[in-house]
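Quick sanity check, Rap1a immunity protein domain-containing protein:
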Amino acid sequence: MKSQFLIGSFAAVCLPAMASMQHCQEDVDSALCQSYLSGKVAGALAYSDKFGLRASEQQGFSNRALNTRANNAVVQANKRYCQDRIPSNEDLVTRLGEGIEQGRIANDNDLTRALRSKLDCERLP
C-alpha cells in the first residue's frame, strides 16, 4: 500500500513536468503546452549566447579575419545592438504558439529553429 502511494504521488508530481510538443499540437492554449513553451523559452534565453551557431562562430575568411583583428569591437557592437531587440518571454511564447497553430512548427526541431531565428539578432559583418 505504501509503495502504491509513493508511486501515485511521484506520478502526480512528475506528470506536469512531462509536457511535450504533443500537448501543444492538441491544444496550444492548454496549461501543459504553455508550461512547455515557457520552459523552452526560458532555457533558450538562459543560454542565448550558446544557443545555436552565432554569426561570429560561422566559418569563412571574413569571419576568421574579424575574429583575429576586431573581435572585441564586433562583439561589443552586437551586444549593444541586440540588447533591446530580444523579445520578452511572453512575446516569444505567444509567437511560438501562433506558429504551432498555423502549422509552421510541427515538431521539436521546428521549435528549436523558430527559437533560434527569434533570438538571433546579431548582424553579419
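Posting the structure with no commentary besides this: Residues 2-119 form one domain.
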